[in-house]
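Slide 14.
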Amino acid sequence: MQQGILGTLFHCNSTDDFPLHDYCPESTEDKPSCCFYRRAEAAGEEPESHEGMTLKLNDAVVEAITPLYEKLSHESLLERCTRGGTQNSNESPHSVIWTYCPKEVFVSKNRIDIGATRAIASFNMGNLKSLS
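Slide 15: predicted structure.
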């Protein structure tokens, strides 16, 4: 995960003179890389020019956001992601509520109350249990 985070930064700062694709995922026959440079390397071809990249970060921007990327890819932060849960425990119940009461459509307070109650019951006890 750490390699993937840093790969997004360096990939967007690569040029023909300084290709920075060391952190990009390697390309295999089963799983081609999302990086055009790595795909060309794996195929034994000359990589295309970086001129075609639609997102090129300015050196000053890269310098400013590198500390943030280093912080986001720090092992102590990534260890919290290994449990596979969400960092925001309310996000999952919210998504269940929005299935009953879409944000795009105006609904009454009564419908929101019923939708929230249904969503919480379904989220906490499962669909079959909430029917009773």
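Speaker note: The chain has a mean pLDDT of 82.
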